[in-house]
Structure formats: C-alpha cells, structure tokens
Amino acid sequence: MADSIAIGGVPVGHDADPFIIAEMSGNHNGDLQRALDIVTMAAEAGAHAVKLQTYTADTITIDADTPSFRLSEGHELWGGRRLYDLYDEAHTPWEWHETLFSHAADKGILAFSSPFDPTAVDFLESLGVPAYKVASSEIVDLPLIRKIAEQGKPVIISTGMASIAEIDDAVKAARSTGNEQIVILSCTADYPADPASANLRSIPVMANAFDALVGLSDHTMGIGVPVASVAFGAVLVEKHVTLSRNDGGVDSAFSLEPDELAAMVRETAVARLALGEARIGAKESEREGLRFRRSLFVTRDVRAGERVGPDNVRSIRPAGGLMPDEFTKVEGREFRVDAVKGTPLTWDLL
Q1: Who has greater pLDDT, 191 or 84?
Q2: Of 106, 193, 254, 349, which is least packed with CB atoms within 10 Å of its CB?
Q3: Whole-prediction pTM
Q4: H/E run at residue 83
Q5: In CATH, what number is assigned to the domain containing residue 344?
C-alpha cells in the first residue's frame, strides 16, 4: 500500500488533513445556477473537491414499472418511487459538467464524478477529471471498475452493502490494470443512515485486509461520525451537501449545509492533529506545567536544629522540592541549616 496518493496534486494519506469531498448528487434540484452555487459553497467551506454523479435514467436503469424497479413502500425518503423517475429527477445533465468543472477550477476546488456506465467514463475522461468514484451499488460491476482503473487516475471505491469477498474482487479488478491509486470507503448505504450502523471499527480492518488507504462515505446526519472516523484511520471523507435542507431535493434530508460542511473540514483536520503519536509522557507543550507540580516546600522561616513537621513543611505548588510522598521519610528530621519561607525542601537541608 502506498503511504499516500495525490488527487489533482492534493495529498491523500495519514500525513495530510483528511481529503474532504462535497457530494452534490441531486441537490441541484434541476437548476444549473443552484449547482454552480453549491460548487462555490463547497470551495468556500474548504472542501478539497466537489463530486457529481454522471448518469441518465437510461444509462443507469430502464423505463420499467414492475416491483423490481420500484423502491419499497417503507423507504424513509423515496418509498414507492420508480427507479427511472427518481434517477431522471436526480441526474446531473451531462451538458452541465464542463461548465461546473470550469467553475470549480475558477474557485480553486477540484471536481470529478462517479460514472455509472462505460459511456460516462469516456465522457468524463474527455473533460480531464483528476479521479473517479465507484458508487456502492456499482462495486459488483467489475468490467466498469476495470475500465475506470485503466484511465490511470485515483479510484475511490465505496463499499456500502458489500461483503469482504465483493470488496476484494473490486480491489483486485482495479489493481489488475496496474493501478495502485486506490482508496476504499467504509460506507453504510442507507439514507439517512443511523450512526449506530457506521461500524467505524471496520476501517483499520479494511486497511489491513486490502493493504489500501481507507476513508468514509457517510450518510448520517451531522459531522460526529466523520470526525470520529479520523481516529480510526480515515484519510478521506465524502458527505452529501446542499445549500439548505429546507429547499428540498432528493438527498437534502441527510446533506450538510454550508456551515456544517465548514465545521467538518475544520474538525476532521483537528481530529487528525489530535492523533499525535503512540507515546505516553509529558509533551513539549506541557513543559511549563511541569514547573507547577506539587512538591515539599518550607512554609515558614526555620532555624538549624528545628525538626521537620506539618507546621513548617507542606506539599504545595510549584515543583522543585522533594516528592510529596517523601514527607514520611523527612518528618522529625532536623534542619541542618537555616531556611527561609518558600525554600524547596531538598536532602541537603537535612
């Protein structure tokens, strides 16, 4: 496994701040200006990249109306809807892509996409995307993964619903092309997802099992799960974003608003810094604090020959004298010399 890769020149790995992807998905609500505003918002919030989804209803499914082509009635967000209608509403028009990518470049943020069929890969390659994302449901489409990996760009593979064998097949498919620029994303493909289903402890397991960098594609509400994921080794976090949940949209219910995205960028970076190193002991930043630990001090003027007792020696701040537990050893012993109030008690005084 490479210690890090680069997406559009931005390092992705354990020695860099978590790479933050703002997923637009269908939150543009069919409005190009809103899509442009989401790109601007993501850039201003500090995300490293904004991601689209490149499909049409006809490239991702077919116009059919049997039970297999409908969401279950009990689905929290899209109950009973036809796949074709949902994808037709949520898709990002292909003619918008170049405009959105150009706008992203102007705003200093990377832009790429998830292709859902080979024609989408060819289209995105013509636009010079810096990376590709494999969506969770596409992890079993090994020919598509091979085609994506053959482009020689970083491949981000989301693993929602996937078994360990399916993840292994997908990673091997990507690596069979000679492409080692792989990031696997821990993911719960539920919308919105319950934080209790995040299973963040699986992140280091996946990293070891597949010898790969691991990140998080998160569909929970808020930023608690993404921040916590960094402690388990996540080097990349993807979250759906919107300008306002009140505006509606297919993914708005579990998407971050601008201030929340900015907070996630900030707090995941703080979380990485907080990991530090596996050592116990005083830190350099605690050096001043060490001066003010408790120790034994002379608490009033004493004369040579006086005996040590609670009336003239106590455990106080600062440091510099004998350790407090030494009092039982020095109590009753005579002072060898005079000592003024505020003198640290040391063996040479006795």
Answers
A1: 84
A2: 106
A3: 0.87
A4: helix 83-90
A5: 3.90.1210.10
